[in-house]
Structures are given as C-alpha cells and as structure tokens.
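Justification of computing resources. Each target in the renewal requires a structure prediction run like the one illustrated here; the chain below, 218 residues long, is used simply to show the kind of job we budget for.
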Amino acid sequence: MPIPQNYPPVGRSLLRDDVYVRLRDAIVDGTFAPGESLRDGELAEWLGVSRTPVREALLRLAASGLIVARPGRSTVVAEMEEATVRHARDVVAAMHELAARLAVPDLAPSVLEEMRAANERFSAAVESGDAIAAVEADDEFHGALVRASGNPSLAAVLEQFEPVVRRAEFLRFVSIDRFTSRERHAALIAMCQAADAEGAAALAFQTWHSLPVAEPHR
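Resulting structure tokens:
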C-alpha cells in the first residue's frame, strides 16, 4: 500500500473520530483506490497514532461498506458496486427529504445565508472542475438543513451511508451534470425562503435520488 505523501502529519492528540474522518475521506476522494490493501500499521504511521484508533476506524468503515475486512487475511477498499451505491443513495435521499420537511417551517435567516454562501462556493468549484471543493461545498449546503432539522438521528444515518454516495460522485465527477445541481440548489433556497416545506422536501429527495449509480457508457 503506497502511503500518500501530500497529507500533513497529525498530532498525537488526534481523536478517534478524526482518525475515522481522515481515513474515510481518503477512500471517498480516491486517495485509496478500490481493491487497495489497507494495513493498520502503515496507516498508524501515516497518521502518527497508535494502531488502536486505526483499527476502530476500520471497523466503522467496514460497517459503512467502504472497506471489506477479512479476519486473519486482509483489509481492502471495497469495489464500487452498483447495488451498494443505489441502496445508499435511496437512504440518503430519504434522510435529506425528511431534514427539509423538519427544518423549513422554522428556518432561521442565517441558515439561508449559509446555504447561499455554500452554493456560491459550489458553483465556483464546478466552474474550475475542482471535485474536492465541489463536494465539500455540497456537503455544507445540504448539511445546513440537516443541522437545522434538530434531529441528530438524521446525521447519524447520513454519516454511515452518505460517504458511499460521495465516493461514487468523486469517481464519476466528469460524467455528473453538476450544473443541474447548482440550479437545484438555487431552487431549494427559494423554496426554503418561501417556507414551502413539502416542495423543499420533494426537491431535496429528487436532488439526491437523481445521482447516477451505474458507470457511464464510454
């Protein structure tokens, strides 16, 4: 397993969640490719931590379907399987639909401003073809409604299944119509401002459920 050289080391005080996030993001953005072996000793050295938080993070990643752990054999990055992405996408779409339905009726103006700023960053990233910045901005945009929903269970479910969908987006960034997403963001903001909870919920579901799950034809 080649260790990435362009990631900064982290301090010894790194929390378990931070180890998980670092490994998750490295899988989602393709730093660790499908089928690549992951060795806890090498990962611990890369992150500057002991093997214990790494092993705990790998267990969480296995539960999310991002890696495949074979006891006594090897741990590898999971391949991209259409059915797995489709199932995760369906769950994620339903959770964002619910988040909008819960959040919109009492949405604070600051949340709308947060969404507008995130969509501007998303648009700029799309224009420049920056996949990492686009996905980060999209996370911030949709995360605003999730946080405003006041339902921590939504965030817990999304934490498990959304990385699978995001990984598919990274691997297929060139083929996804990201300009349509930008327009849907603007429409969702307008519905939120109008306090149209049902319209916003339907659009949030459509936005996520329209993401492709199959590899594009070449």
